[in-house]
Specification:
The complex is a heterodimer. Chain A is about 30% helix and about 30% strand. By secondary structure, chain A is an alpha/beta fold. Chain A folds into two domains: about 5-185, HUPs (Rossmann fold, 3-Layer(aba) Sandwich), CATH 3.40.50; about 210-329, TPP-binding domain (Rossmann fold, 3-Layer(aba) Sandwich), CATH 3.40.50.1220. In chain A, strand 2 (about 10) and strand 3 (about 15) form a beta hairpin. The radius of gyration of chain A is 22 Å and the shape is elongated. The N and C termini of chain A lie far apart (about 50 Å). By secondary structure, chain B is α/β, with parallel strands linked by helices. Chain B has one domain (about 1-205): Rossmann fold. Helices cover about 25% and strands about 30% of the residues of chain B. Chain B has six helices and 13 strands. Chain B has helices spanning about 35-55, 70-80, 95-105, 130-135, 190-195, 235-245; strands at about 1-5, 10, 35, 55-65, 80-85, 115, 140-150, 155-160, 165-170, 175, 200-205, 215-220, 230. In chain B, strands 9-8-7-10-6-1-4-5-11 form a nine-stranded mixed sheet, with helices on both faces. A two-stranded antiparallel ribbon of chain B has the order 2-3. In chain B, helix 2 (about 70-80) crosses helix 5 (about 190-195) and helix 3 (about 95-105) packs across helix 4 (about 130-135). The longest helix of chain B is centred in the first third of the chain and has 17 residues, at about 35-55. Chain B is globular and about 65 Å long. Classes of the chains: A alpha/beta, B alpha/beta. Chains A and B meet through helix 3, helix 4, strand 7, strand 9 and strand 10 of A and helix 3, helix 4, strand 7, strand 8 and strand 9 of B. Strand 10 (about 145-150) of chain A pairs antiparallel with strand 12 (about 215-220) of chain B.
């Protein structure tokens, strides 16, 4: 029997969806080991009460609650110290984090403190003998590696959206854990978080992404892309590197080799030629639609449905048709 | 200001990949190589910081076989002052082993700032930078999209999912560079390429320690079905909507 540690990520006093994905992944491993899942959540006083029930419902036998005023924001040094101390003392076989911006910052610190092997950004994981085996996309998603981690504990970070959070009700018994060091003494301090516009979906979470490229000709024409995204109702807006380099859109919107790697249910490429650098970021989307005036554009080689035409004619027509279809649907 | 930048040599990503005969690596026959994009930006950030201050030193460190000397020379041609190769026949997949070797080289080096790319575009782990920080006991900010250093303090921004985080920290520190901090690395000028040949490049054995993470298999993901064009202009929109509803079932 061996227990598994899961780090339950929160922001602004609320659990993030990736926290439940991490607990689900930890549950899979714990079931293979015949052990328990212990999920740790850090935050300002009250975070335990706000999150324990959800964590228990998704498979946490124990919820480790670390509360402190100076944990209201992500506190990397205090979080790493608390997680490492607990993992070391608790004799866990494995520790699961999310491969989010926070998890990819935190997990390597913890693994280094523990001298543990780490498999990062994995899309699946399993137990094979004395090792933990995980799949991890490499070379911008063009190759999949199977990675084997030996030693105890093994640390993994799970790609967002790769493992669907599932309900597996367990006791979720709350255990208060004191911070290891004074969280107020951390050298790296988060002084603020600027939230994106309210209700705006993140590229990593949106079921639909509408993306624009140079074919839109000018920054203000991104309005067409935004309107189409709005018509879908569950879409985020992305962009190519050419567009973000020109300052039409922020760098955080860039999809591609050096930007976000996404795989939504539907990806609509508007005025995008399909440079390799861009394809690297979206080729794993389930369905791809491309609208481009050049019938030889490489984007049409990966598009399930292509329309050759002027984006200024096609996109408004599509926006109206999608609105109509959703109204009827 | 003394800055170290850790860089990785990677195969160029626009290649069509094949799997090697052992099934656990990419077949690198005929492949071209480059410095990982984020690492190139980290070199650019270091050079800009040095130029802004009008003095300082930029050291470039790369772990790998002798071929990484080419990558180091490129950074020297861009304007870095000296290079160090941590020699190992094959770069392991174990981020902590790499971090140990880099930390052993960086420890006691008196660096004000140690820069990494956010991740290497081949192995896509992004773990080494923060691990080095931890091993050296230094403050660390990962995936910085903005960086401002003044009077021994740093302010950085990081892109979260749907938000931006503002972070303050003291230097010396480790910072990993995301796109946005710079958008383009400089191309080496001919003069820089000539000068790079005379710049010092030390070769030392890498102290990796125990390797606990290995790749047992590499495979190509299933190919996408070839694309199809369903029509031209706005007239094709009704057919597209029908297909999205009935075939793809995404609308």
């Amino acid at each position: 029997m061996a227990n598994v540690f899961a780090f339950a990520e929160s922001r602004g006093g609320e659990l993030r969806r990736v926290a439940l994905e991490a607990v689900t992944a930890a549950r899979t491993l714990a079931d293979a080991f015949g052990g328990e899942v212990h999920a740790m959540v850090l935050g300002a006083p009250g975070i335990g009460r706000a999150s324990a029930e959800q964590l228990g419902r998704h498979g946490a036998d124990v919820v480790l609650v670390v509360e402190h005023d100076r944990l209201a924001q992500y506190n990397p040094e205090a979080a790493a110290a608390a997680a490492a101390e607990r993992i070391r003392g608790g004799g866990y076989r494995a520790a699961v984090f999310s491969a989010s911006a926070q998890g990819q910052d935190l997990a390597p610190r913890v693994a280094a403190k523990l001298g543990a092997g780490i498999a990062s950004d994995v899309t699946s994981l399993s137990v094979a003998g004395d090792a933990i085996v995980a799949r991890h996309p490499v070379n911008t998603g063009k190759v999949t590696a199977t990675v084997r981690v030996t030693g105890t504990p093994a640390v993994v970070t799970v790609r967002q959206g790769a493992i669907t959070a599932a309900e597996r009700p367990k006791a979720g018994r709350v255990e208060a854990v004191a911070p290891v060091a004074d969280p107020g003494a951390s050298r790296v301090v988060v002084t603020g978080v600027r939230e994106g516009s309210k209700g705006k979906l993140d590229l990593g979470e949106a079921p639909v992404i509408v993306s624009g490229g140079r074919g839109l000709k000018a920054a203000e024409n991104f309005r067409l892309v935004e309107e189409l995204a709005d018509a879908f109702g569950n879409a985020a807006v992305g962009a190519t590197r050419a567009v973000t380099d020109d300052g039409w859109r922020p760098h955080s919107d860039q999809i591609g080799q050096t930007g976000r790697l996404v795989s939504p249910n539907l990806y609509v490429a508007v005025g995008i030629s399909g440079a390799i650098q861009h394809l690297a970021g979206m080729r794993t989307s389930k369905t791809i639609v491309a609208i481009n005036k050049d019938k030889d554009a490489p984007i049409f080689k990966v598009a399930d449905y292509g329309i050759v035409g002027d984006v200024f004619d096609v996109v408004p027509a599509l926006t109206a048709a999608v609105r109509e279809a959703r109204k009827r649907g | 200001m003394k800055i170290a930048v850790c860089v990785k040599r990677v195969v160029e990503m626009d290649a069509r990949f094949k799997i090697a005969a052992d099934g656990a690596a990419v077949d690198e026959t005929g492949m071209k190589y480059a410095m990982s994009d984020f690492d190139e930006w980290a070199v650019e950030v270091a050079l800009q910081l040095k130029e802004k201050r009008g003095q300082g030193e930029v050291a470039v460190i790369s772990l790998g076989p002798d071929a990484v000397q080419e990558t180091i020379r490129k950074a020297l041609a861009m304007g870095a002052d000296r290079g160090v190769q941590l020699k190992v026949d094959r770069v392991p997949f174990d981020s902590l082993a790499i971090a140990r070797a880099l930390a052993a080289e960086l420890r006691g080096g008196g660096y004000d700032l140690i820069l990494f790319g956010k991740l290497a575009v081949d192995s896509s782990n992004g773990m080494t930078g923060p691990m080095v920080a931890e091993l050296l006991g230094l403050p660390c900010v990962t995936a910085a999209t903005k960086l401002d250093l003044q009077n021994g303090r740093g302010t950085a921004e990081r892109a979260l999912e749907g938000a931006v985080e503002v972070v303050e920290f003291p230097v010396p520190a480790v910072v990993t560079v995301d796109q946005g901090l710079v958008t383009q690395a400089r191309y080496p000028a001919l003069k820089g390429i000539m000068a790079a040949k005379k710049k010092p490049l030390e070769v030392k054995p890498a102290q990796l320690g125990e390797v606990r993470v290995t790749v047992t298999k590499m495979e190509l993901p299933p190919e996408r079905a070839p694309g199809r064009i369903i029509g031209e202009g706005a007239a094709a929109v009704p057919e597209l909507v029908r297909l999205l509803q009935t075939e793809a079932k995404v609308l």
